[in-house]
Amino acid sequence: MKYTETIQEIIKNVGGKENIEIATHCMTRLRLNLKDNEKVNEEALKALKEVMGVVNKGNQTQIIIGAAVNEMYDEFIEYTGLKAEAGIEENIDDVKQDLKNKKGNLLTKFFETIAGIFNPIVPALAGAGLVRAILTIAVVCGLDNTGNTYTVINTIANGIFTFLPFLLAASAAKQFKMDKFVAMTICAGMMSSTWASLIAEGTESFSFLGIPFTVVNYSSSVLPIVFAIWFASYIEKFLRKYIPGALKIILVPCLTILIATPISLMTIGPLASWGGDLLANAVTVLFEKGGVFAGIIYGGIYSSMVVLGIQHGMVPVLVQGITAQGFNYISPASGAANMGQAGAAFGVWLKSKNRKNKTIAASATVAAVTGVTEPAIYGVNFKYKKPFLAAAIGGAIGGGFASFLGLKAYAMGGPSFLNFAMFIDTTGTNSMNVVWVMVGFAIAFVVAAVLTFIMGFEEEDAGNREG
Fold first, then answer.
1. Is the Cβ–Cβ distance between 297 and 379 less than 8 Å?
2. pLDDT tens column, 339-392
3. What's the DSSP call for residue 420?
C-alpha cells in the first residue's frame, strides 16, 4: 500500500489502534474519534511528510492530509480493520467552531442544513452543465443543431433542470428525516402537468375547497419544494407520534400527502416561488448596478465565507439563478477568490525555504487550480495568515474585473481553470465570456502570488531547509 508507513506512524502517535473508536474523513482531513485524546503526539504527526497540520476537537483528532485523503482513508481502513464510515461533507475548523461557540448553534445549523440539501445534487448539476457546454462546442465545430443527435443530447442535458424539484425533494427528505418516497410523491403532485396545462391555457388561479390560489409551474423551481418538504416533515412526525403502530404504514403517508400537498400548492409554493425569483433578481441587480464594487466585495470576502462555512448559503442563489435566468454573476467572482487561494499557495511555494512546506504548497496549488481550495486554505494560506490576506486581495481584484465586464456562469460547478466549460455561453451570443473569465482568474492568481512573495510569512518549522 502507498501510505503504509504514514498510516503506521499516525496510529502510533494517536495512542495505538486500540485508542481509535471511529475513523472517518471529510474533503481534506482524516478524522479520528479517540478514547483518550491525551495520548496524541501532535508534533510527531505534524512532522510526517503527508500531513499538513493537526486540529484537535475534544475527542476527535483531525489530521489534515489534503486532496489525497480519500486514498489514504481507504488504506487506513484496510490496514486497521476499522469500519468504513461515510465521508463528511463539511470542513469543521477552529474558526467555524469558534463561530458556533460564540453565536450559538442556530446559524451554523442553518448553513449545514443548506449544504446538506444542495451539495449532494451539485455534481449532477455540474455534469449536466458540462454536457451543455460540450454540446455548444460541438455545434461550433459543425454539429447540426437541428438534427436528432443534437436534440437527444440537449434533452439529456436539460432534463435535470426541468425535474430539479425531484432531486431536491429526495435530498431535503434525507436532511429533514422524512420518508423519501412520500416527499417525492408530494413533489409529483406539485409538478403535475395539470398545472402547466392550466397556465398554457391562460389560467392564473385555481381553488381547493373554495379557497383560491395562484397556479405556478414548479418545473426547474428551487425553494418551493425545499420549503414544502420541510413543512411536510413536521406533518409526518406529528402523525407518527399519534397514529397507532398498526395504522402508521398506511395512514401516515396518506395523510401527510393529503395535508402537505394542498397547503404547499396554495401557500408555501407560490410564496417560495416569488421569494426565489426575488432573491435571484436581487443578486442580479446587485451585480448589474453595483458593478466593479460588487465583484470586489464578493471576491474579497468569499474565502472568509469558506473558512466560516457560510458559503453554502449561496448555493440556493446560484441554483435559482441558473434555473430561472440561465446564468449567474456570482461564480466568476467566487472563482477569482479560488484562484487567489491557488496563487497565494503558489507564492508560498516560491518563497518557502522548507522542503516539506514547499511540497505541501505545491500540492495545494495544483488542487486549488482545479477547484479544490481546502488544502490551500486550511493547509497553507490561513495557517500563515499573510498569504490568506494576499489571496483575498487577489480575489477582490479578479472579482472586480469579472463584475466590471458583467461576466457570467451558465452552469453549476466549482469555478476554476479546469472547469472553464461552465462559463461558455450556450446561446452563442457572448463567445468571449469564457475567455475573459479565464483572464480574471489569471489576474487573481498572479496578484495573490506576487503579494505573497513580497509580504512573506513566518514558517513555523525552520528545520529541513534546502541548501
1. no
2. 999 999 999 999 888 887 888 888 888 888 887 777 788 778 887 889 999 999
3. G
CB atoms within 10 A of CB 155: 10
3-state secondary structure of 149: helix
pLDDT bin (cut points 50, 70, 90) of residue 43 is confident
pLDDT in tens, 172-224: 998 899 999 999 999 999 988 888 888 888 888 888 888 888 888 888 777 88
* Residue 2 pLDDT > 90: no
The angle subtended at Cα 266 by Cα 262 and Cα 271, nearest 5°, is: 130
Backbone angles phi and psi of 373, in degrees to 5? -95, -10
Pairing, β 60-64 against β 29-34: antiparallel
The CATH number covering residue 44 comes to 3.30.1360.60
The reply to whether 440 and 354 lie within a common domain is: yes
Q: How many CB atoms lie within 10 A of CB 197?
A: 12
Q: What are phi and psi of 424, to 5 degrees?
A: -80, 125
- b/e for 226-238, b at 16 or more Cβ within 10 A? bbbbbbbbebbee
Altogether, the residues listed in the chain come to a count of 467
CB 268 within 8 A of CB 231: yes
Strands (DSSP E) found in 135-233: 205-208, 211-214
The CA–CA distances, whole Å, from 53 to 5, 9, 38, 228, 382 equal 18, 15, 18, 42, 12
- Res 445 pLDDT > 90: yes
Cα distance between residue 146 and residue 341, in whole Å:
43
Q: Are residues 394 and 257 in the same domain?
A: no
Closest to 397 measured CA to CA, from 449, 461, 458: 449
Cα–Cα distance for residue pair 198/203, rounded to 1 Å: 5
Residue 387, amino acid? P
d(CA 261, CA 90): 32
Residues 62, 19 share a domain: yes
Buried b (16+ CB within 10 A) or exposed e, 455-465: bebebeeeeee
Same-domain check for residues 445 and 298 = yes
Name the domain count of the chain.
Answer: 3
Domain of 56, in residue numbers: 4-88
